[in-house]
Amino acid sequence: MQDKTIARGLLKDCVLNAADAARLVLEMQESLGEMSQHLERRELLLLLRRVVRAGTKMVKEEENTVTLETAVWASVEARSSYLRPISLRDLRYYARQILSVKGAADMMLRNMKANDCREILQAAFGHRLSAYVKGRAILHSVFAYGIRREWCDANPVTRLEVPRVQEQTIEPLTLEEVKRLRAAARNSDMELSLNLMLYGGIRPAEVARLKMEDIYWKEKQVIIRPQTSKTGGGRVVPLRGCDHLPPQFRIIPCDWFRRWRQLRVAAGFTRWVPDACRHTFASYHAAYFKNLPALQLEMGHCDLYLLRTRYMRPVRARVARLFWETAKL
After folding, report:
1. What CA–CA distance (Å, rounded) separates 312 from 301?
2. Last residue within a domain, chosen from 97, 129, 159
3. pLDDT score at 67
């Protein structure tokens, strides 16, 4: 009788009655199974308190989460202050592709499993392996950001294997193709840009961002600063093939990418492989100078693996010599 009075007093401000509370205790005990069997009253009470606390914590954590859509755009916003415009544009494109998968945007971040992530990536990027790999990296970064914001506790993307991308073989330009490009660029505002790509291995986007004060004509050096570089690391590149340029052509023109397309068309190219000039530079440099550490520094690579596996193609010594002789013309 006294216990009933105490129970009613404890539950006076709760919408549940003593019978409801008894049912909940029995459900917990049944769920615990053997763990709750043969325990004394005090031991069982302590165990049930642990269950209540653990369950309370889990419920609170489940409430402290957001949808995948909210997490994706918050992650993009957090990175927008330091990404270059072209990188930010790519990030937003991949974010939209991920969220375009039916049902993905409304998934709760904390509840997502590895299989959910796999299905989203397959639906969004399964048609192209390189896009799948990049999409996986971006989705991984979304969960990493979510962990920092305490929207989730784990990154399920880490359980997805990274597919191995078979890189496309890029052959260096032939001497005839180099001749056509140089003829189309001669005595124009693109001649300096072409020489920087062909004889310095500088990426097109890096040339477009280059400041004229970073070209040191007396020292014959070009400084690729971190804010100019694709990878965010600076490097020094020898300035080759530009001694003959008159002052009026020692410039990087505005609307650079349009001018670069026009130059290729003028040289007779109907199809162009991205970074063809950079691959040409690497192959001819390795064959002629035979100094891979120096080439690594000029290319801005952290090791020689990428040079050996992707950039360098076999080139005959005589052809390499003729290529570098064109730099003096």
Report:
1. 13
2. 159
3. 95
Paired tokens of 274: 């991205």
- What are the tens digits of pLDDT across the range 190-231? 999 999 999 999 999 999 999 999 999 999 999 999 888 877
- pLDDT tens digits for range 259-309: 999 999 999 999 999 889 999 999 999 899 999 889 888 988 877 777 776
Distance, in Å, from the CA atom of 299 to the CA atom of 229, rounded to the nearest integer, reads 11
- What's the number of domains the chain is made of? 3
Are both 53 and 77 inside the same structural domain? Answer: no
- Residue 202 CA to residue 16 CA, distance in Å, equals 73
- The total of other beta-carbon atoms located within 10 Å of residue 266's CB is 15
285 and 313 housed in the same domain? yes
Q: How far is CA 2 from CA 21, 55, 96, 187, in A?
A: 17, 30, 64, 105
pLDDT, residue 142, reads: 97
Report the alpha-carbon distance of residue 147 to residue 140 in Å, rounded.
11
Range of the domain at 209: 175-326
Mean pLDDT across 17-38: 78
- The pLDDT value given to residue 39: 80
> Is 187:256 a contact under the CB 8 Å cutoff?
no
Angle at 92 between CA 105 and CA 75, to 5 degrees: 65
Assign 61 a pLDDT band (cuts: 50, 70, 90): low
| CATH number of the domain within which 83 lies | 1.10.150
Reference 79, options 88, 67, 90, 71; nearest CA is 88
Same domain, residue pair 180 and 320: yes
Global model pTM greater than 0.70: no
Inside any domain, residue 184: yes
Contact status, residue 280 vs residue 178, Cβ threshold 8 Å: yes
Is the residue at 203 inside a domain? yes
- Do 228 and 313 sit in the same domain of this protein? yes
Residue 112 structure tokens:
């997502």
State both tokens at 22.
């008894």
Tell me if 220 is assigned to some domain: yes
